[in-house]
Amino acid sequence: MGVGRILLNILVVLAAIAGGFYQLKLKPILVKFGQGRVIDPRGNTDCTTVPELKACEKLVLHQPSGVVYLACSTQESRPHWLPNAQRFNATGASRTDYVASYNPQSGKVTKLKTVNFNSPRGLSLHGMDVVASSSNPSELWVYLVNHREPLSGDPKVVGADSSVEVFKTTLGGSTMEYVRTVEDPLLLTPNDLTGTPDGKAFWVTNDYGVKTGLIRDLDLLGRATTSVVYCHETEGCKYAIQNMHGNNGIAQAPNGTFYVVNAIGGQLTVLEKQADNTLIITDVIESDRSMDNASIDSEGDVWVAGFPKALVLVYEHFANPTKVVSPSTAFRFSINTGPNSFYGQKFKVDRVCDRSSYTLSVACHRIT
Ligand SMILES: *[C@@H]1O[C@H](CO)[C@@H](O)[C@H](O)[C@H]1NC(C)=O
Ligand SMILES: *[C@@H]1O[C@H](CO)[C@@H](O)[C@H](O)[C@H]1NC(C)=O
Ligand SMILES: *[C@@H]1O[C@H](CO)[C@@H](O)[C@H](O)[C@H]1NC(C)=O
């Protein structure tokens, strides 16, 4: 065979491999990321915009009072400093991120002032949990992921020096008192966390297996490098589970069932807590799109924020947060009690709310 012919053969084989790769691997991923998806708006007529509260990554509802706690930042700083998304311009970071409470009934917004928190690296917030204290239900533990600038080295190379900050507040109060900072080498790229009612322990997701570098992009193709880390005040930190894919939001039910969102693969993973506080997977529930964080309501249903257009979020909204909006979805996952539960459909996935234009924090509630 002539050289030309050999080259042609090689090209045909490569094209076939690339085509197969596209069909088998890449296409389903791009479809989950929203390629070709037409937004199907629903459940969004009863929405309220809260203009004071911007760039709030996490919301936690205090169910007995109906008050919502939010971990907020500024839209301007996010494209510069969000280490989980490889945004490492520490000069542009907001170090004065804050926790706010919002009462949907009265519309009152309270930005909680910190007490006794003196870190010069401040607060650059991400995931959060707010848990009523087991000893006094009007006292709340606030667990926060804080993406601190590293003390030395270029953040692009060494990554952020992320910590978890624990604060204490009172329901209805306007301050939160500093309790402790948790630092540990296992806190690689912490994203979201769920804390215990004694203020002593939490489980936090790492959304990548390493802090920086191109290798992280392989996770988009299904590489499973993410984890959940368990930390206790006196016992320190350890892995609760490793080698999961796309770990992001985390929530726990009172009975020890945990839910972890696979943001990349668009799945909700169900896990059971073991006696040693590690987690094992018991179920995986599929959805059709990328998702973010999860909350559990008083009925035990799990609410998850979804991205109908993840590519718009990552490549357009992120670069220009005040101009390009990113559409969002709210899913409800519940136990399927209908007849098809018999045939293996253990969970029901309802798309409760879909909006093409979320620019600000939006409270989207359904009257049932
Ligand atoms: C979930 O995450 C999205 C985007 O990261 C955020 O806008 C939303 O408020 C969060 N929701 C909850 C319930 O934490
Ligand atoms: C980093 O952030 C600062 C402050 O917002 C900004 O002036 C600067 O242009 C940013 N640098 C890059 C490379 O984006
Ligand atoms: C725990 O509660 C959830 C509802 O929040 C339920 O789906 C799950 O089956 C329960 N797990 C156990 C082990 O009872």
UniProtKB/TrEMBL annotation:
Keywords from the UniProt entry: Membrane, Transmembrane, Transmembrane helix
Record flagged with keyword Metal-binding = no
One Pfam family, please name it.
Answer: SGL
Q: Does the keyword Transmembrane helix apply?
A: yes
TM annotation in the entry: 6-24
What InterPro entries does the annotation carry?
6-blade_b-propeller_TolB-like, Serum_paraoxonase/arylesterase, SGL
Q: The organism sits in which domain of life?
A: Eukaryota
Domain annotation SMP-30/Gluconolactonase/LRE-like region: ranges: 157-316
What is the name attached to this protein's record?
SMP-30/Gluconolactonase/LRE-like region domain-containing protein
- Protein species of origin: Candolleomyces aberdarensis
The top of its lineage is:
Eukaryota, Fungi, Dikarya, Basidiomycota, Agaricomycotina
